Amino acid sequence: MSESETEVDAESGEAESMDSPVERAAQQTPTSLPLRVEGLAKQFGGITAVDGVSFEVEAGSLTGLIGPNGAGKSTTFNCITGVHEPTAGNVYLNGEEITGLAPYEIAQRGLVRTFQIARELSEMTVLENLMLAPKHQLGESAIRSVLPGLRDDVVDQEEELRERAWETLEFFEIDHLATEYAGTLSGGQRKLLEMARVLMTDPEVVLLDEPLAGVNPTLEEKLLDRIHDLRAEGYTFLFVEHDMDVIMNNCERIIVMHQGRVLAEGTAEDIRNNEQVIEAYLGEDI
Fold it and tell me: By 3-state DSSP, what share of the chain in percent is helix, strand and coil, each rounded to 5?
């Protein structure tokens, strides 16, 4: 690695890698993959919703997760993100096990998600929704209110967050809605808001649960453009979507679930030509 690709801390003498997202992806090992799921299972009483699911998601990728209704996709998402505690199996984020952690603990480690039905804070403005999302906020307290130096820290941080929130709203082209109450937005605008709020958390891995459901074609194109822009910057996405054209045209790798298990994995071409997938899900028309 050249000197231009490495910064050295003068005090510690340790080198900080400056590799690009593409270079990091090429160097990754099974223990350093952004997301790795091994033998994941979830039972609800006598019903097995997820049955020994294993897969990996590579750095900087847009990976699709598809399957018929009831295949276990949403339950898999819920187990990965801590909404449900798995009955069995393990989930790893950047080689660190996160199985069974609370959703906020997983989010603090850099794995966040959106929901099929956007969950905005309806009685707060769009701008306030974004400013609430970042981690490690100082916040107000009795001590900070009487000690000028500490209060200045809060004010400075809030100004920085406000500026960043405006930049994020501009990126998603919803800055004109900043002062609107989130509950007044259209379905598509709420999806954009949810994506913007996710970005404010500084995530490494983003799980998208049907982000295009109920979105008109214009906003759908805008959302996909933003997702590809973020992927080019090194973000990693796992993407549940029922629109096969979207999946086939945008995802480098596709995972197919059926009856709680992984039925097949591969490129769009692999999946199109997989007879098991055609029979179980895609149909002959594909």
Answer: 40, 25, 35
Count of residues in the chain: 286
Q: For position 151, what pLDDT does the model report? A: 56
Residues 6 or more apart whose Cβ sits within 8 Å of residue 40: 50, 52, 53, 54, 76, 79, 80, 86, 88, 89, 90, 91
Q: How far apart are CA 242 and CA 32, in angstroms?
A: 30
Homologous superfamily (CATH) of 17-120+202-282 is: P-loop containing nucleotide triphosphate hydrolases (3.40.50.300)
Query: Could you tell me if 272 and 286 are in contact, meaning their C-beta atoms sit under 8 angstroms apart?
Result: yes
Task: Give the tens place of pLDDT for each residue, 65-81.
Answer: 999 888 999 999 999 99
- Calpha distance 264→259 (Å, rounded): 12
CA 252, CA 208: separation in Å to the nearest integer? 15
Q: What is the largest distance, in Å, between two alpha-carbon atoms of the chain?
A: 70
Compute how many other C-beta atoms are within 10 angstroms of the C-beta atom of residue 271: 26
Asked if residue 58 lies in contact with residue 34, where contact means CB atoms within 8 angstroms, the answer is yes
Question: Which tokens in the block code for residue 54?
Answer: 């294993």
CA distances from 53 to 71, 89, 266 (A): 11, 8, 15
Task: Please tell me which residue, 219 or 102, carries the higher pLDDT value.
Answer: 102
Question: pLDDT tens-digit profile of 186-207?
Answer: 888 888 898 898 888 889 999 9
Q: Are 194 and 207 in contact (CB under 8 A)?
A: no
The CA angle 260-82-197, to the nearest 5 degrees, is 110
The three-state secondary structure class of 65 is strand
Q: How large is the average pLDDT for residues 56-62?
A: 94
Cα first-last separation, the chain: 46
Spans of all domains in the chain: 17-120+202-282, 122-184
